[in-house]
Specification:
By secondary structure, this protein is mostly helical. The chain is built from 35 helices and no strands. Keywords: Signal, TPR repeat.
């Protein structure tokens, strides 16, 4: 059982045990100092069970009592599989006790053992068919166990017995059950089969149909049903949102045009407007996105959240100046709102105290406090809770850090992080702080921040150490970086990313054997990770050995990622080593067309020079050095080829 499922199951189990003890009229005091139901003695369990059965004394069965104790003991011991097995056996052999039946159903469902889950819920449903939760579980498990015909009958019966004014609600209930099925194509077919006799034509029906089609990757069907929903209700925001989500590929222009026109007729749809603006940003239509958000701001001048969205657009457009300016306005307004909320809290406390003393409420509030509230609460329609304001402020400060970092204003970015409350700082923000310090050449302080982060967030220790290794590697402190990477691997021994980073560091230091060993581990554990094949293939090509294996490795890397300029460069350099100069030139020119990196330029210069094209070799080196005047590979290649004298 994975961790998330186990936690959910444990919480369910704990609640079941508590409920069972309370239902059995067992008082907490009777348990003694250990008052958890999980610490009850065998005798206390037996007494509790017998009290609960006081009206059925002739029905008390020692085997039944023992079975219950076995289930609860297994739960306490964390042996959930055995507890579920015993719970299922109890349900089949004795009677349906809801919390016991639910243990079996929940465990087997969470483990994907649907037949056992169905067996448990079937008994439970037969005992309590009017229990909506049990009925829903029963229907869901009919679907998961392949009993589609029976499920369709139940779903249709739900619709047949529903009152006329409730049939749409029942349709939605049925859809909610089907949406939980793991097989989305099956869910779509079951929705179609269960609704076929009823000839639904409502907006709700077409939208539900579209949703099932979307989940089953039937986009054409979803598109068709969405527009049928619009035909029945031309002002449906839900339908327009689906058009926007489906407006991809060849339907992009049509979908975007439809939503634009829809918003002209229905301008007050805030969610749709913001979604449309986001899509415009994805299309790099930043001016149009700003124009759309300006319309929203004119209609809602006190909606300060729109400033945040505007800042995001400027950020996506890499317009750092405007992004920072607009975001600063949002931050200032949010800080003022939080201050006003703090004043409100103080006033409420004063009012409570003064009312108890029969003091006039008006005199309990100072004029300054009253003015503060009025200044920051003019828009009653946009009242936001303090916790939401805190979250908004946190998001805004994080965005401001990114903006300032892009502007290389590292000190100001650090100041923004320092303004975030300590209890709001997570491991990622502390790593961001360390990166900023490293950018300011304060690697020592950066490492101190990371050390404190490993203490505050021990569950993230491996990732933090990996990050520290990256900082040390980038700053040239390779000895320390090796230590950090190896410590990170102790925390995350299966991490292909850390192994890859350490291998690249070893290669840079000229330690080929440990690099090769790690890269082979990466390839074995992550066979679809192109970088692993490329790195090992390039090591061989660059050092001019194992060239046959290098070609196999780089061929596989290109199969996985055919347009990666670094892999194309590696293959080109390998062909150069193999003296296939025309092939080498083709690979390297393709790589250079994609990304004009110094190492690709240097490799091309070597190939051109070997082919007797010294002018082309000199031109590409000169161009590279004009953009990267201090690059060591370009400088070494230029010096070695000595083209100025040829």
């Amino acid at each position: 059982m994975n961790i998330a499922k186990r936690r959910l199951f444990i919480s369910l189990v704990a609640s079941f045990l508590v409920e069972s003890v309370l239902a059995q009229n067992t008082t907490v005091e009777s348990v003694g100092e250990n008052n958890s139901p999980m610490h009850m003695t065998v005798n206390e369990h037996a007494h509790s069970f017998s009290v609960n059965k006081k009206n059925q004394e002739n029905d008390v069965d020692p085997d039944k009592i023992q079975s219950i104790l076995t289930i609860e003991t297994a739960l306490v011991d964390g042996n959930y599989a055995y507890a579920a097995q015993e719970a299922l056996n109890f349900t089949k052999s004795y009677e349906v006790v809801p919390w016991i039946a639910e243990i079996a159903t929940s465990y087997y469902y969470s483990e994907g053992k649907y037949e056992q889950a169905y067996e448990a819920v079937r008994y439970w449903y037969k005992e309590d068919p009017d229990n909506e939760e049990v009925a829903n579980l029963y229907m869901l498990l009919l679907g998961e166990t392949g009993k589609e015909d029976e499920l369709v009958q139940v779903l249709q019966q739900n619709l047949k017995t529903a009152a006329k004014d409730k049939i749409e609600d029942k349709l939605s209930d049925n859809a909610a059950i089907l949406s939980e099925l793991k097989d989305k194509n099956k869910a779509l077919k079951l929705f179609e089969d269960s609704t076929k006799p009823f000839a639904f034509s409502s907006t709700n029906y077409h939208l539900l149909y579209a949703d099932f089609a979307i989940e089953a990757d039937k986009d054409d069907l979803a598109w068709q049903e969405t527009f049928k929903a619009i035909d029945t209700n031309p002002t449906s925001e839900d339908a327009a949102i689906r058009v926007l989500s489906l407006a991809q590929g060849p339907k992009r222009a049509q979908g975007m045009a439809f939503v634009k026109e829809f918003l002209k007729k229905n301008p007050d749809n805030r969610i749709l407007s913001l979604s449309y603006i986001n899509e415009l940003s994805k299309d790099n239509a930043y001016d149009e996105a700003i124009a759309e958000i300006s319309k929203l701001q004119k209609r809602n001048p006190k909606d300060s959240e729109l400033l945040y969205f505007q800042a995001l657009i400027h950020y996506d457009a890499q317009d750092w100046t405007h992004a920072r300016k607009v975001l600063s306005q949002f931050i200032d307004l949010t800080v003022k709102k939080l201050a006003a909320e703090k004043v409100k809290k103080q006033i409420n406390k004063k009012v409570t105290e003064k009312v108890n003393d029969d003091t006039n409420i008006d005199t309990a509030i100072s004029s300054e406090e009253s003015d503060s509230i009025k200044a920051n609460n003019g828009d009653s329609a946009n009242v936001t809770s303090p916790s939401s304001l805190e979250d908004s402020l946190l998001d805004a400060r994080k965005l401001m850090v990114s903006i300032l970092k892009a502007e290389k204003k590292y000190r100001l970015a650090l100041n923004q992080i320092d303004l975030i409350k300590a209890d709001k700082l997570d491991a990622n923000m502390l790593m961001e702080k360390a990166q900023l310090l490293a950018n300011l050449s304060d690697v020592r302080q950066a490492l101190s921040v990371l050390e404190n982060a490993t203490i505050a967030f021990p569950e993230s220790r491996g990732n933090i150490l990996w990050f520290g290794g990256n900082l040390l590697n980038e700053s040239g402190r390779t000895d320390q970086a090796v230590v950090y990477y190896n410590d990170a691997l102790k925390e995350l021994p299966e991490s292909a990313d850390i192994k890859y980073a350490l291998a690249m560091l070893y290669e840079k230091r000229g330690e080929v054997w440990p690099a090769e060993k790690l890269l082979r581990e990466v390839i074995k554990s992550e066979p679809n990770m192109a970088d692993g094949y490329n790195a090992l293939g390039y090591i061989y090509a660059d050092r001019n050995y194992n060239l046959e294996e290098a070609e196999q490795l780089l061929t596989e890397a290109l199969r996985i990622d055919a347009s990666n300029p670094y892999i194309l460069d590696s293959m080109g350099w390998l062909q150069y080593r193999l003296k296939n100069y025309d092939s080498a030139m083709q690979y390297l020119e393709r790589a250079y067309d994609i990304e004009q990196q110094p190492i690709i330029a240097a490799h091309l210069a070597d190939v051109y020079n070997t082919l007797g094209e010294q002018k082309r070799a000199k031109d590409i080196l000169d161009y590279g050095l004009s953009n990267y005047p201090s690059d060591p590979i370009l400088l070494e290649t230029s010096k070695r080829l000595n083209l100025d004298k040829k």
